[in-house]
Amino acid sequence: MKLNAKKLRAWKGERVGETLSKNEIYIILDNVLDTYNIGSIFRLSDAAAIKRLYLCGRTETPPNHRIKKASINTTNWVEWEYAESALQVINDLRAETQDIKIIAIEQSKDSIPYTQFKYKKPMALIVGHESYGVSEEVLKECDAIVELPMHGVNVSLNVMVSLAIVLYHALGSAGLNLAK
Fold first, then answer.
1. Strand order in 123-128's β-sheet?
2. In whole angstroms, what is the distance from residue 102 CA to residue 143 CA?
3. pLDDT of the chain along its 180 residues, tens only?
4. Separation of alpha carbons 85 and 28, rounded Å
5. CA–CA dist 11, 160 (Å, integer)
6. Count of domains in the chain?
């Protein structure tokens, strides 16, 4: 089933994410505050058929008018969960999922270009607060930190844009097909 934005916005049915085939990719939001970013990440998560989205810390959760508007109701399709901390999610994922790679998308002295990492499933991608990034304690628990090169005067991209670039690169380079 494919629904356009108008049909998604009008959806009144049950949550149906459980019935769709998913890629073994998890997304973790570490204190992402902008509700339009959160909603857009729901939409991105649906597009890439990720397994689960974790909203951590001060990240707002549905129901929220702005999340709903930006997500165009993809909150009905994306499996998501709230957790008090991204560290808790990392520990839980490592306990549940063998060989998972935890990858932060962040500028750091320890980061490498996102194109140089060898992505494979299962994996978790972490993005952080719009101004402060992924927290230091979370970065210490990551298997890798990847970043996008910035060639202009601006020091960073929007959190959702950065996530989208890395997510789709990871899908392609890991030889993962989007779930159908």
1. 80-83, 50-56, 23-30, 123-128, 101-105, 144-147, 112-113
2. 5
3. 565 656 555 555 555 545 678 999 999 999 999 999 999 999 999 999 999 999 999 999 999 999 999 998 889 889 999 999 999 999 999 999 989 999 999 999 999 999 999 999 999 999 999 999 999 999 999 999 999 999 888 888 899 999 999 999 999 986 655 444
4. 10
5. 24
6. 1
* Residue 37, Cβ density class (10 Å: 0-12 exposed, 13-18 middle, ≥19 buried): buried
Prediction pTM value:
0.89
Amino acid 45 reads S
What type of residue is 68?
K
Query: Which CATH number is 132's domain given?
Result: 3.40.1280.10
DSSP 143: S
61: containing domain: 21-173
Residue 16 inside a domain? The answer is: no
